[in-house]
Amino acid sequence: MEGIVKKSTGSWYTVLYDDDKLIHCKLRGKFRMDDGKSTNPVVVGDRVIFDTRPGDGTGIIIELLDRRNYVIRKATRLSRQKHIIAANIDQALLIVTLAQPRTSAGFIDRYLVTIEAYSIPACIIFNKHDICTPEQKKTLKEMISAYEPLGYKCYVVSAVEGTNLDKFQKLLRNKTSLLSGLSGTGKSTLINAIDPSLNLKVRPVSRAHKKGKHTTTFAEMFQLKSSGRIIDTPGIKEFGLLDFEAWELSHYFPEMRALLNKCKFDNCIHVHEPGCMVREEVEAGKISYSRYLSYLSMLEEDDNRR
Ligand SMILES: Nc1nc2c(ncn2[C@@H]2O[C@H](COP(=O)(O)OP(=O)(O)OP(=O)(O)O)[C@@H](O)[C@H]2O)c(=O)[nH]1
Ligand SMILES: [Mg+2]
Ligand SMILES: [Zn+2]
Asked: Is 97 close to ligand 1, i.e. is its CB under 6 Å away?
């Protein structure tokens, strides 16, 4: 039978099949590992073929079907292995808060670049609108007018007061959505607000540090009553970037990608080169300076990594 992995804890996998049935499965003894470079062979969102074991109602996963896409967590410096967060995602929704915790523009851009590299559509969900100060509401408007023209749809919501949750719910319809963001931004609260019967664990942000407490500790997929599947994830600091060459980085910034081959030099990395169209547009205010700064910082980090 075919199913979708809902969660994985150690050696057990919960598999969703026939729309709403669940079965606990183990992997078949000699399970084909991909390239040995990933720490987890089967992940949330994977489509698998399983057999039921007579007797105890558990199952055995015998085959992993091809993945359409997947997202990895940043690998530690010590290990070359990657940890896959989830697979077969239709859209990535970044949950952002401007206070408690504050999500920086740098974080948002890094996330968007990563998701661009995976070719997965992304949206930005600004949560906790109920506690935004007038100053933050102004920042919010500026951010929306910077990101929407780049193709990232923005939603302003409050999970607590229910603001715009109808729009959010519509966004989730008939899709598999990955929710990510810093710890404490309200990912689990938002899912509860859409479907209270799920009753996910949530915890207040620390008062002293204005940071979340990593309440959700592993990724899990939920089938929504209102149609669609949503994957709750633990708060992340960053995603693992795919390996990229310096000249490729600008391909993941849509406003820079639009200028592809317009610079004087083909291998222009848009820093000091003469005849650089990207820098020209930054100087003319057509490309956001904040986005360009994010670009430079990612470029520099990549340089250090080498
Ligand atoms: N004022 C306000 N508080 C919110 C809102 N959404 C979530 N919160 C609060 O933010 C805190 C953290 O929410 P969680 O849902 O646990 O956050 P999370 O993103 O799942 O965090 P991790 O699981 O740690 O990654 C809780 O105290 C929520 O009540 C909102 O719209 N407004
Ligand atoms: Mg959570
Ligand atoms: Zn250039």
From this structure: no
